[in-house]
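Quick check before the chapter quiz. The format below is the same one you will see on the exam, so make sure you can read both the input and the output lines.
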Amino acid sequence: MSFLILVRHGQSIWNLEKRFTGWVDVDLTDQGKIEAEKAGLLIKNQNINIDFYYSSFQVRANHTLKIIQKVLKSKKDFERAWQLNERHYGELTGLNKVETAKKIGEDKVFEFRRSWDIKPGKLSRESSYHPLNIKTYEKIPKELVPDTESLKDTYNRVFEYFKKEIQPKLINKNILITAHGNSIRALCKYLFNLDNNQITSLEIPTGNPLIINFGENLKINECKYLDKERSKNLLVF
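Here is the expected output.
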């Protein structure tokens, strides 16, 4: 038996401001830090020994994990993988979601946010919001840095990394990943075998640990959110 715990980072500054964040590297709000601490306490109450920790390259996910580890009193190093980053929102990056909806229509914004294979226009490589101009990503090969992504693009990079680097370690080991709404959505599509329509309607709450219990041959026995008051429909079980 093994456990995989997925935690979307706590509320970030741009979550609060309702801006398309993507690969822009913003930190947690005070509320986000509280969410991360609560996530740590909920995980601690499970009495599960975490063998491996993973996070994206992004500070909001890293900070969330560090707060959780502090609660768990764990000093283990964690692996940072850019493949677990949030989806790149292209030319929408930095825009206010409400104002953008008024400008181009709610249906169009929803299409960009939740469609499977439609991506926003490319973000200019001259923009300060482009990953090529953000120090956090300087070690990623330039040819792998996106200008925009669809959910499908995000799924492909998350899936490939998970299948190669994380899934083999799940056999009789426990793993905790802190990541982002769309990268966790991508993991859920793979783990729960969701179709392209189901994945677009899947909501991932901030700072609420999703715990997945695996049995033999990594068959899922059970999955649940630890904070029941903030649970979302998993479309499974």
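If your answer matched, good. The chain has a mean pLDDT of 94.
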